[in-house]
Amino acid sequence: YYGPVINPKSLTLYETIPSCLLAVSSTGNIEWIAADITASHVHETIIQKGCTDFDVVRLGSGEFIIPGFIDTHTHACQFSAIGTGYDKELLDWLADLTYPGEARFSDPDFARRIYPGVVRRTLNCGTTACCYYGTLHLEATKILANVAHAMGQRAFVGKCNMDQSAPQYYIEPSPSESIQATKALLEHIQTLDHSPAGEPLVHPILTPRFAISCSPELLKELGKLAAANPSLAIQTHVSENKEEVKEVHRLFGCDSYAGVYDTYHLLRENTILAHGIYLTDDEVKLLKERNVGISHCPGSNFHVNSGVARVGEWLDQGIKVGLGTDVSGGYSPSILTAVQHASIASKVIAMEARSGSHRNGHGHDHPHQATVQFSNKQLPIATLFYLATLGGANVCCLQQRVGSFGPGKAFDALVVSVRNDTGNPGVWGVTPSESEDVSEDVMKGWLEQFLFCGDDRNIRRVIVQGKVVGGLDFTE
Ligand code: GUN
Ligand code: FE
Questions:
Q1: N or C: which end of the chain has fewer CB within 10 A?
Q2: What is the tens place of the pLDDT at every residue in 335-364?
Q3: Could you tell me which residues are beta bridge partners of residue 127?
Q4: Are residues 391 and 425 in the same domain?
Q5: What is the pLDDT of residue 368?
Q6: Ligand 1: does its nearest atom lie under 6 Å from the Cβ of 329?
Q7: How far away, in angstroms, is 442 Cα from ligand 2 center?
Q8: d(CA 471, CA 454)
Q9: At 125, which CATH number?
């Protein structure tokens, strides 16, 4: 690939490389990256590097490459309900809309009809790696894993565990049956073919829905299953809504929601907790000790009227954070929308802090925190970009493979266009025929406009492990 490349480096830094030559091997891994290569030196450079058999994809004007987006939390089984029930709060929303909708997946044919459209949509939105919740049904969730695998998306797929506090029509009959079905899903996903790089693209993930819907016995068995499989990822919800937190305290006779998961050994490096709005300082400290990642789901936090998460404080304490769309708590399956909502959420926090209306408005003490860089401030663009890519990779423990570009990493990428012929052009007015010298400043502007105003009209190619699997130019 030859053209402008933007590569996230850290929470506060991304690199813009205007004339970048990026070599991808036949297995889909990045071999090398060379900067400052003029158009006339592309072939020469490749041959110097020792390649003899190759194709060159030259990006057109107004096009650039970024790493694919990582959605660290979404519900594949809720896409049909997008946009409904946003005048409710979590517990009513679950009981009145979500559980009835999810119960329809007891019919595998329904799953076969719905899931291909879900994966197609997330892929075309630029999500190259996605953490999916399925329903509690084994068959339907196997179908979801098969679909993600067939469409070439990197994915984590989990079957909900829920054996209490749910309606009779949508509950698992016992902890042992819940565990048995979970093991069957793990075994099924392990049978799926590996990628050309020799590793699985689709991973199983333990998915206790949330503490409320799991009996102590079920949590205990899940903890045992996790202990027997250290590399098995875990996802659940935490401290999303005040009534939910109260209910967890009541059910488990405790005053720490995160502590419930910890009691059952479910907090570890490869655990992803969604939301976290009402985590106490002690709980945040616990998550840091366990090196747990948080999926920040700002769209859902606004639309199900949950609250505003204090992401800046998590980042200042060195907690791993990624973005989640949390469909259908959130209405958009696009990480671009999550970026926009994360920016708004951080601005709400910053405005509250300035007006002194929040507990932390006059500077909150964090004795264990070296620097206060993000707390009570709006998130910089570089940080938003990082959360959407490398931050998400960290949360999924995939940072060695994806989230940014480097030799040996998988080429999971988007070819983005901000040209006039996209149907969603930027103010830059780049025409298809134009060939211009692209400066780093121009690229910075392109990235900002794409993050805040872009959509799937601007995504030409979605590439996972070197293979084009979505975007405008993709044909099946
Ligand atoms: N907590 C438990 N289940 C859910 C769910 O489906 N969506 C959200 N946003 N929160 C939950
Ligand atoms: Fe969720």
A1: C
A2: 999 999 999 999 999 999 999 865 554 445
A3: 69
A4: no
A5: 55
A6: yes
A7: 37
A8: 13
A9: 3.20.20.140
pLDDT score of 370: 59
Dist. CA 209 → ligand 1 center (Å): 7
346 and 426 together in one domain:
no
Q: How many alpha carbons fall within 13 Å on the CB side of residue 35?
A: 10
Structural domain for 27, as ranges: 2-67+403-470
CA-based nearest residue to 137, from 105, 169, 98: 105
Record the pTM: 0.97
Q: What is the pLDDT of residues 14-30, one digit of tens each?
A: 999 999 999 999 999 99
Regarding whether 133 and 16 lie in a shared domain, the answer is: no
What is the number of domains present in the chain?
Answer: 2
pLDDT-above-90 percentage for the chain:
92
Is the confidence metric ipTM above 0.95 for this complex?
yes
Q: Any bridge partners for residue 467, and if so which?
A: 464
Residue range 267-278, pLDDT digits in tens: 999 999 999 999
Any atom of ligand 1 within 6 Å of the Cβ of 240: yes
Let me know whether 333 and 461 are in one domain.
no
Residue 133 pairs in a beta bridge with: 75, 158
Ligand 1: which atom is nearest the Cα of residue 90?
Answer: 10
Average pLDDT over residues 166-179: 98
**Closest CA to ligand 1's atom 11:** 237
Residue closest to 16 by CA, chosen among 5, 27, 24, 26: 5
State how beta strands 154-158 and 202-208 pair. Answer: parallel
Q: Tell me, using a 6 A CB cutoff, whether residue 389 lines ligand 1.
A: no
Among candidate residues 349, 371, 395, the one where a domain is terminated? 395
Cβ 101 under 6 angstroms from ligand 1: no
Q: Say if ligand 1 is within 6 A of residue 326 CB.
A: yes
